[in-house]
Every structure is written in structure tokens, then in C-alpha cells.
Amino acid sequence: MAAYTQRITLDVGGNYLPFYKYMKQGDGESAYLVVTVTANGQQLIPAAGDTAYIRVVKPDHTEVVNDASINADGSITARITTAMTAAAGIAKADICIVGASEDVLSTATFFLDIDASPSSSAASTNEFLDLIRIVKEGKELLGDYETALAQLEAIGENAEAWAVGKRGGADVSDEDETYHNNAKYFMEQAKATAEAIKIEYTIDSELSTDSQNPVQNRVIAAALREMRGAIDDLNYTAIAVSGFSVSPNQAEMGSSVTTVSLTWALNRAASEARLDGEVIALTGTSGTISRSGLSLTANKTWTLTATDERGATASRSASLSFLNRIYWGAAAEPETLGSAFVLSLASSALASSRGRTITLSAGTGQYIWYCVPARLGTPAFKVGGFDGGFTKVATFQHTNASGYTEAYDVYRSDNANLGNTSVVIS
Q: Which of 8, 302, 348, 359 has the smallest C-beta neighbourhood within 10 Å, fewest atoms?
């Protein structure tokens, strides 16, 4: 059947009008897209070792992920398969490039406009050809030794050739790269040379599972190690710090923190861990690090860095912040407006900004008071949906319960006896 090829350009930044390709339901296998990948209009050339895939989410939400070809000019050829067009409607698709280190770069989305076919009976299913192949091979290779040997039939044939100069039990031809270039040939040459001094060597003529031949065993052992490494690569996930926090994470300005607990979690065990650059021992994937004998009076940040057995690293930070309080409450007009009065108000909270919503009840002769560090700026008040209702009545040097002193602004409601009231401060 004749093949139909269409050239398109897709930008990784998505800066161009979307591309729609018309297809008939059930058509495919002979339709190809040649994609030029660009970034802001400039062509991106895949690097050596990169692979490319076409990903499609069909109108019925089943998915297709198939491999694509990287051409000599840097463009990418993707085949439209019948699985991609099995469901009528608009299918979303893109091209992704996967680097040798498994980094992924994806293009802007394009669309397959799939017109319903009156005679199509194709069932729409997920199609992950390349992934299915890899997973299937990986599962088969995770079997016992006998299964692994069966999977290594092709490699074993090469091993036989390199070891004894035979393929399938027959001598290799003089066109084979192993002809006069295998272990048995060189061993026989060594035997002939050493014959005068009675040195004897033996080598099996054929490969077998119970062979005591060191050459054969080394070849097969090396092949098994290679396949085990490939399986390990499939199962590998780089280390990540999934959680890291400190308790306490806030303290009042003027106080001193002597003990902290640092709680951590990893997605896998670390081969090495450092806390602020110092090597520490972490067991398992979660736990708590305690630090005592401290004398912290200012903001402090801890950074945990974990490294796995392949050298991948991940970091996360947690911080302790020293803050002053905002005070509020309902009270009568005091004789002296100072720190003693502010500390007597019913409610307070450590805060880094002036805004919050408060709800309280002001009885007979009582006003609503709001006291905030002057450095946080001028708050705006809203009561019952209306702006205002509060006036700044004083600014003075307030000393908190931990002995820290700084300028505070004191705001009072314009009216007393407000009853149960909610105030929004911003």
C-alpha cells in the first residue's frame, strides 16, 4: 500500500496555532508525520543517544505510546497506527524526546480529527508497544537461571563463537568475525607452542549448563551481569526527599530555642546523607533527627541532602522563624496604655503580617483593641462589610513576654458595647 507522509512543525513552547490532521476512523499504518521540533521558531536537533516517541490520548481516553524515528536532519518520523484512529472524535497527541539520562522534552499538543467510519469495527484499546516490549522482557529475565539462559539464546550463540569458534555446533566460516579470533583458537595456538614443556589445556567443544570451562562460564556470567544491569536500570528511581520539617517552626522574638526535632522522609534508602553539609547516618526511609543544647535566638534554616547508590542527590530545607505577636481582645479603656495592658488582652498570635479575621464580644463599656508591630505597616479594618470603625490611639515601645522590645501601634474600635463582632483586618 502507498504511504502518505505529511511534514509539520511543533514547538516545545506551544507558541504556534494548533495543528489538526484529518484521519478516517480505522485508517493507519501507511500514514506518517515528519515532525520538525522547534523552540521559539528555532529547530531543536536531538542529541546522540536520544529516543523519540509519539503519545496519543484518544477520544475514549485510551492511550497509545509508540516509538518514533529520529532522522539524519534532526526531524522525527512518527507512524499513525490503526490503534490511534480506532475511536472517532478529537485525539490529543504530542512528540516527546527522551535523553540518555531519562530527561524528557515534549512538544506542543496537536490533534487528530478522526472522522467516524460507517464500517469500522476496530476495538479501541491502550497501545504501548515499546513499553510492553520492555516490561515483558524485564519480567521474563527476572525468572530463574534456566529461563535466563533461554532468553540469552542469541547471546549464547555469540558466546559459543567467541569461546570455541562454533555457531550451533558448526565451525564458523572464514567470513565470521570470530574465525581465527576466538578463545579456542588462541588456546590451541598456546598448546602447540607449549607442547615442548608439556603444558596441557582443555576446553569444552560445546556450551552446556554444567560446564566447568572457565572461558564459557566467564562469557555467560558477563552476559547475565549485563542483563541484570538492564533490569536494574528499568526498576531504578532516583532518590527524592519527600518530606522535611522542623518542630518548633516558630518562636517568639526574645526567646531562646534549645531543642529542635527534624522529621524527614525519603522515597528510598540513602547511601549517604548530609545535614547542612555534615555527614549523618539515616536508617530506612523516614525518621526524626533531634538537636539539643542549642541557643537559637534568630531565624535558622536546616538543609538535608540525600545521595543514592548511583550518585543522584536530592535536597530539602526546613526553617525556624522568630516572630513577634499581634494582640487583640475586648477591654475597657485602661488608665495606662502600655505593655501590661497589651499583655493582658485575651488573644495573641505569632505573625509575620498584620492581616487576619478576629471574632470577639465587647460588653458594656468595652472596646475592641488590636495591637500590631509598627514595622508591619498600617492595617485596614472592615466591620460588617463596612470599612473603618477603628482609630490608632497610641504608638509606644512594647516589651513582650520574652523581653524583646519594639514599636507597636495600638488600634481601638470607635465605639464600645459592640457585642459579638467579626473584624476583617488587612
A: 359
Cβ atoms of 370 and 354 closer than 8 Å: no
What contacts 24+ positions apart, CB below 8 Å, involve 360-363?
360/328, 360/329, 360/330, 360/420, 360/421, 361/330, 361/419, 361/420, 361/421, 362/330, 362/413, 362/416, 362/417, 362/418, 362/419, 362/421, 363/330, 363/417, 363/419
SS3 68: strand
Considering the four listed CATH numbers 2.60.40.3350, 3.30.450.20, 3.40.50.300, 2.40.420.20, the one that applies to the domain covering 4-127 is 2.60.40.3350
358 pairs with which residues across the strands?
A: 423
Domain ranges of the chain: 4-127, 137-235, 241-322, 324-425
Give the pLDDT confidence of 269-289 residue by residue, as tens digits.
Answer: 999 999 999 999 999 999 999
pLDDT at residue 239 tops 70:
yes
**For 241-322, which CATH class?**
mainly beta
* Residues 162-188, mean pLDDT to the nearest whole number: 75
Is a pLDDT exceeding 90 seen at residue 204?
Answer: no
**Cell 543522584 identifies what position?**
312
pLDDT tens for each residue of 341-400? 999 999 999 999 999 999 999 999 999 999 999 999 999 999 988 999 999 999 999 999
Q: Do domains 4-127 and 241-322 have the same CATH topology?
A: yes
Do residues 30 and 43 make contact, with C-beta atoms less than 8 angstroms apart? no
Dihedral pair phi/psi, residue 43, rounded to 5°: -65, 135
Q: What is the DSSP letter of 257?
A: B
Residue 377 and residue 418 in contact, taking contact as beta carbons nearer than 8 Å: no
